[in-house]
Predict the structure of ABC transporter ATP-binding protein.
Amino acid sequence: MNGVPRKKKIDTTEARRVIGRVMGENLREYRSSYAIALAAMLAVACTTAFVAYIFKDVINKIYYQRREDLIVPISLGILAAFVIRGVATYVQSVMMAKIGNNIVARYQHRIFDHLMKLGLDFYTDTRSAQLAARINQNVAGVRELMDITITTIGKDIPTLVALIVTMVLLDPILSLFALLIGPPVILTVRYLARRLRSIHRESVTLNSHLLGAMQEATQGIAIVKAFTMEDQLRAKISALIHRAEERANKIARVSERTTPITELIAGVAIASMIIYTGYRAVYNVEPPGAMFGFMTAVLLAYDPVRRLARVQVGLERSLVNARMFFEILDVEPRQADSIGSVPITVPTGEVEFDKVRFSYGNGVPVLHGISFVAKAGKTTAIVGASGAGKSTLIGLVQRFYDIDAGRILIDGQDIAYVSKRSLRQSIAYVSQQPYLFEGTIADNIRYGRPDATDEEVIEAAKLANADEFIRQQPQSYGTEVGENGVTLSGGQRQRLSIARAIVRNAAILLLDEATSALDNESEKRVQQALERVMQGRTTIVIAHRLSTIVNAEHIVVMEAGRVVEEGVHDTLLARPNGVYARFYQLQGREESPIIDDTELQSTAVTGPAV
Ligand code: ADP
């Protein structure tokens, strides 16, 4: 199945695998940039160590031996070291940011392409959809993982090594003392990191619950308000927020615990060093330069040590994100085109279902051997109660899913063996809920056929009865719609989606008739637009309006995944005790057996359509 596995513990091997994969996918790509960044980091490490080392000469040669000739050279040396350090830090930061931004951009491209390839089954899994919604956060995880690893390896470890070398050069015995404090620091930090890891995992899970719950609540806001669920939801979300806050505080407490511990250890170390070197200076009359250089090295080492101590914490968080990201990227798109599939040619657009059996992933049969022919250029109306399998049928013509048995033929070609792209290009689909995308009105119509000329777009809009209202918009065809654009009425949106289908100029039209009620005037315009787009095309329509059904050249009556009757209105009506005849007699009455419940609402508002 395409489901994404639940969050599970990240063990060390898996962590290593994820890091390995991130490195493998990116190191080579950014070879030269990383080389520059690493060189800059090494320069930072060396100059840091140099500053510590030169302190010995500052104290001994300038203050102790009073060598006037060295004042200027040593000062200039220190100035140069700081300038190099500044430039190198700048180069390194800019380089890492550039690489990081590019990693994010590249993965965003990749994940979007991937999301477009995934079948509809992926999107019906809400958990996957939620994961997809948080892609940006997850991509950031991949970037962070690279940043942390490279900075650790390139900067902090070399800086620390250079400083330790400096310490040894300055005072080997004292270095031994200083290194003795290493193990206890490492041990405490490791203990805390382990504790943090489990708290952090809880926090990530909690936060995704929280985000998911908020997303659901806002997406279903109409239902929330209709059922006055606000208080219940508020209580539920409050509890989650409270727990997330507690976790975040706990993380802060535990991770900050490293600070007092390391401060204490550092204080003890420096105090003992002063005691040792102090007595040595007092009794041996030894110049204190080496000691000052040494202390400087210890103080400078503090920063990289602290960062290294936190590496595990940052790594843990970005690992969780990177792993979620790869989980989506690793979902195999199912039912790719079979090898040797050819483009379909659709001269007339006759659609034939031949003993089609189908079940969704869960194995429950939905269609039990459907056979019927939708004649070329004619309208075939599919009627049946909700859940009969009408939408499934429409989806199968577009090969959103592969069928279990039987064949679907278009002009005699089995669609299982043609390329999906060519198949879908010969079909226009008007969904029940018209969907507009970010962009202008013209863009939205042109999604039907990207190479349509402006004239064709306008012509389609005219046929769809949309031209008039489009011209009344602030920027006419250039008006922005979608998320950030103007709000159009339901009827206007429907007419735009019809214009999109007209401009596509495909031989086959799949139509899921809208059930939502429009006002009479709007309804008439939409109806007229639909009649025009159906003209001369093979139309398969999930019919909700009696007028559509009565006027159809062929009616297919479905019940629970089977075709129970088919024919034209008059013959079906003449059948004694026929399903259709019963339905027709009951039309307008509430217990209509073969028509969607939704229809009842729309007829109730708009009045009977015939
Ligand atoms: P209709 O369009 O006639 O209302 P559908 O084709 O939507 O019927 O549904 C037919 C049957 O298939 C129903 O029992 C429904 O529960 C099931 N079904 C629809 N979509 C899915 C899906 N994505 N996964 C599993 N079952 C589904």
Remarks:
- Residues 124, 360, 362, 366, 384, 386-392 surround adenosine-5'-diphosphate (CB under 6 Å).
- The chain has 23 helices and twelve strands.
- The first helix runs from residue 12 to 26.
